[in-house]
Model the fold of this input.
Amino acid sequence: MDIKKCLFPVAGYGTRFLPVTKAMPKEILPILDKPLVQYGVEEAVEAGLKEIGFVTGRGKRAIEDHFDVSYELEHQIQGSGKEKMLDGIRNLIEQCTFSYTRQITMRGLGHAILTGRTVVGDEPFGVLLADDLCFGDEQGVLAQMAGLFKQFQCSIVAIEEVPAEETHKYGVIVGERLSDGIFRVTGMVEKPPPGEAPSNLAIIGRYILTPDIFEILERTEPGRNGEIQITDALLRQARERCVIAYKFQGRRFDCGSVEGFVDATNYCYENHYLQR
Done:
């Protein structure tokens, strides 16, 4: 099975960035001159996932507008030096198809993914959380995971080591080490209380999921905070079948936090903008 589709859950309120996210989707927040969600779509395209699905919510129309042609703007800058600044987004619009469905109520990431079933259909797919901004060492994180999927043909989650005092912010896995950086998941806990995490291997916002995850999500009872947790569904999938955790090669920034957003901006300025 090849992967062609990538799902972007983008319905969240972005409350850690209030008041700016009161009227602006957090996924449109810019790292330099490019919104977070565009970095994510570029990563998906690099991995060969060009059928892009968004699970949106109220107040998210700016995402749809960004991945569309703005005839008025293009008319105004036609023939000027500024026209070249649209090359990147134009290329994405030409390469990709974009589909949208709405998550009416916010009931957790698992529910958001289940809402995207009508967009994905009955095939394996990627999931990318745009506020986790990732830069791979030699290739993007999703591209690394897509290569692993060809080998294992099962769901894959990206993980990284985090300090023990931060494990309560993440879903945390334990597993059987298969090779360097690759684990067969045997246990998974969503945001364990401080000091109770089974490891320091934290799940980040990159997944490749097989379509049977939808039936599992339908049977998954609400967990922490009354939400349907993707970690609960993945744990059941790991017990019934197989889930691989992959310690990706690269660097991740938590752009859902102000500190991570600033770090990402500085990194991109020093390593990308100054290299132009």
User: Anything to note?
Assistant: The two ends are 38 Å apart (CA to CA). The first helix runs from residue 36 to 46. The chain has a mean pLDDT of 93.
